[in-house]
Here is the input.
Amino acid sequence: MKKSLLLFLMVILNWQGTLVTKTDVYLCNSSGGKKYHYLKNCRGLSNCKAQIIKVSLQKAQTLDKELCGWED
Here is the structure.
């Protein structure tokens, strides 16, 4: 019984973890943009004068972008 319950909890926790994993983020496509954002309508993107683009989290990190301070 304990093993079954433990296995069930592990499956649920792993499943929930995959739901909250973000794979795509948003960037202001300008030379001065230094942050990435999980939400396209993030307050940190409100001053973006260029196009807001969607990229993978890995790509944003490769470009040395950091998570926006409004979303951490």
Q: What stands out?
A: The helical segments are 2-20, 57-62.
